[in-house]
Write a structure and sequence with these properties.
Blueprint lengths: L15 E2 L7 E2 L7 E8 L4 H13 L9 E7 L2 H5 L10 E5 L4 H5 L3 E3 L4 E3 L2 E5 L5 E6 L5 H11 L13 E3 L5 H14 L2 E2 L2 E5 L2 E5 L5 E2 L1 E4 L3 H23 L5 E3 L2 E6 L5 E5 L12 E6 L4 E3 L2 E2 L7 E2 L6 E5 L4 E3 L2 E9 L2 E3 L1 H10 L9 E3 L7
Parallel strand pairs: 3-4, 4-5
Antiparallel strand pairs: 1-2, 3-8, 6-7, 8-9, 10-23, 11-15, 12-13, 14-18, 15-17, 16-26, 16-27, 17-25, 18-24, 19-23, 19-25, 19-26, 20-25, 21-22, 21-24
Length: 371
């Protein structure tokens, strides 16, 4: 029997679309809680108004952005003009899908722009954005009953599983960690931005709502050689053994600091979501100190468990995994934060370099120039 998308068990496709609070809200960043995604078409349809009113009003307390969140999808600009798409924080947002790109991606729309058929439905998704239930929105009103029954059957919290990360102790010696921290302290750190793609270019910009961190880019050839030698001898073989991936390239020799006095943190994100970062394969976090509280890695798709490497040790994971750095509550957390890729991914980087507003520094892990 053929599967019809979307079906229970399917992971849903990622996208970015306009909400009331963001011109390109990344839907994949809401993983880690239950998500209700309602394809409404137009709220001028009484059945659609009834469905969204029932979901939002009857279950308002559930949509707190911690346990669950709701997204409605409208393709009708009239809904915007009439004020029907107002977000309500926490937990209630509406996508303006006026070009119908999201609806087409999810297979709920057929036909051309002049004559199309919309199949309204509500998807209930788990903490990893996989479909739990598909509930059609029909004029007969069964949608509301089926939705209530689905929500009533959900466990209070999504089950926690171990994230697919690799812990590698002893990549840097403690003396070398102290040396790197001293280099950071005397080098003049700058505020760290996030990568966004807009108007055909990938650009780094500062956004304190999503990230507070200070960075130092290591440029000294001798120090790069010392770092690269340790990665090549101690980290690359472990990555090959665990992931069957042979890393040959490093992007950025970056020292970073999350400070409690600045409220240091990094909100949930993935590291390869723009054209100019699509080549990234492996993210590495090497902790350089331990005298801080908070500041640990969390992978929300797999539960609230936190991950912290010992001093000189690495936490290694795919750049496709959503992760965050929780706020530092005491002290300062210092870390070395490179990305690794291979020769095939290097060709992706070179092809996409035209999308990057500022040059990303790529080198062979052994220290030689890239390319």
């Amino acid at each position: 029997m053929p599967l019809v998308f979307p079906s229970p068990g399917d992971p849903v496709p990622h996208f970015a679309a306009c909400t009331g609070g963001h011109p390109a809200f990344r839907f994949d960043t809401v993983a880690g809680r239950y998500v209700v995604l309602s394809f409404l078409g137009t709220l001028r349809n009484p059945a659609m108004r009834s469905a969204v009113h029932h979901i939002v009003e009857r279950h308002r307390g559930w949509f707190d952005d911690r346990r669950a969140c709701f997204f409605g999808v409208s393709v009708d600009p009239v809904d915007e003009r009439e004020g029907a798409l107002a977000d309500s924080m926490p937990g209630i947002r509406f996508f303006r899908d006026f070009d119908r790109a999201v609806s087409k991606l999810y297979g709920v729309i057929d036909g051309d722009s002049a004559n199309f058929r919309y199949r309204p439905m509500t998807l209930v998704l788990d903490h990893r954005l996989r479909v739990l239930a598909v509930i059609p929105v029909d004029p007969d009103g069964r949608h509301n009953t089926e939705f209530d029954a689905c929500v009533a059957g959900l466990p209070a919290l999504a089950p926690e599983t171990a994230a697919p990360v690799l812990n590698v102790p002893g990549v840097f010696e403690e003396d070398f960690c102290r040396h790197l921290i001293a280099h950071f302290e005397r080098s003049g750190a700058r505020s760290s931005g996030i990568m966004e793609h807009a108007d055909g270019m990938t650009t780094e910009f500062i956004d304190d709502r999503h990230k507070k961190r200070r960075d130092v880019l290591v440029t000294e050839a001798e120090l790069k050689e010392e770092i690269g030698a340790r990665l090549l001898r101690r980290l690359v073989p472990a990555i090959s053994q665990a992931f069957q991936f042979q890393a040959t390239r490093i992007e950025r020799y970056l020292l970073a600091c999350y400070a409690a006095e600045e409220g240091g943190f990094f909100s949930p994100h993935r590291d390869n979501t723009t054209p100019a970062t699509a080549h990234r394969r492996i993210a590495v976090t090497i902790n350089l100190n331990s005298d801080f509280d908070g500041g640990d890695l969390v992978f929300p798709e797999f539960g609230p468990r936190s991950y912290r490497a010992p001093v000189g040790g690495a936490v290694v994971f795919s750049c496709s995994l959503m992760h965050q750095v929780v706020p530092v509550r005491r002290g300062r957390r210092f870390a070395f934060l490179p990305f690794l890729h291979d020769e095939a991914a290097e060709q992706v980087r070179l092809a996409n370099e035209k999308f990057l507003s500022d040059a990303i520094i790529n080198r062979n892990i052994s220290g030689g120039n890239a390319g």
